[in-house]
């Protein structure tokens, strides 16, 4: 017999593997392996781990003054992610 608690726990485990909310993680190149370990069980089209060639920590990687070598590619990747998410919810 399944209890409500068991059902909630099963759903939580399923969501850990297949997140419902789309998300994009971008890391500086030195952090990419650490993030990959955190995401090892997260799968799905709505999970993006962008690994830039050049980057800095956080949203600063999208700002030219903070990341002059990588901001264009990083911004293009993030913009593409947002467009994909928006088009999937039309």
Poorly predicted runs of 5 or more residues: none
The overall pLDDT, averaged over residues, is: 79
Strand content: 5-15%
Sketch the topology as an H/E string, one letter per element. Answer: HEHEH
For the biggest β-sheet, the strand order reads 1-2
Molecular structure report:
The chain has 90 residues and is mainly α. It has one domain (4-88). 43% of the residues lie in helices and 9% in strands. It has a two-stranded parallel ribbon. α2 links the parallel β1 (23-26) and β2 (47-50). The longest helix is centred in the C-terminal third of the chain and has 18 residues, at 71-88. The protein is flat.
Strand and helix layout:
Layout lengths: L3 H14 L5 E4 L5 H7 L8 E4 L20 H18 L2
Parallel strand pairs: 1-2
Relevant terms:
90 residues, mainly alpha, two-stranded parallel ribbon, 3 helices, 2 strands
């Amino acid at each position: 017999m399944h209890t409500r608690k068991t059902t909630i726990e099963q759903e939580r485990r399923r969501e850990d593997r297949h997140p419902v909310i789309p998300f994009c993680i971008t890391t500086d190149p030195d952090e990419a392996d650490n993030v990959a370990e955190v995401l090892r069980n997260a799968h799905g089209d709505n999970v993006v781990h962008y690994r830039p060639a050049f980057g800095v920590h956080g949203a600063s990687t999208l700002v030219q003054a903070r990341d002059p070598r990588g901001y264009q590619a990083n911004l293009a990747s993030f913009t593409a992610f947002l467009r994909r998410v928006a088009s999937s919810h039309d």
